[in-house]
Prior knowledge:
The protein has helices at 6-26, 34-63, 71-74, 113-116, 121-128. By secondary structure, the protein is mainly alpha-helical. The protein has a domain at 6-72. The protein is elongated and about 90 Å long. It starts with 5 loop residues before the first helix and ends with a helix.
Amino acid sequence: xxxxxxxxxxxxxxxxxxxxxxxxxxxxxxxxxxxxxxxxxxxxxxxxxxxxxxxxxxxxxxxxxxxxxxxxxxxxxxxxxxxxxxxxxxxxxxxxxxxxxxxxxxxxxxxxxxxxxxxxxxxxxxxxx
Length: 129
């Protein structure tokens, strides 16, 4: 079922109009104890609001070029489970590291601290004395 077809839009709009009309026509016809009347009227209002919300969402979906095209898109699980792993594919962070010496080079102290401090280092030592 396509959610971007004009038929879907018209059906959702007609359902919203019918639900709103039902609220207006059935509001005073609800019978029973006070609690039953309250729950029935709340159900009428919630049904009307839900039908109107669906009609608006379908219209917005069509206006923005079909963000959700089908019902499968609507209920698709875009995020796989957290423990999901592809078979036969291993990321670098999952590989076991062999014990042994480190292959990263160690930093060498080739420059003196005053030489690496920059051009102002001579001026600082001159102020101290």
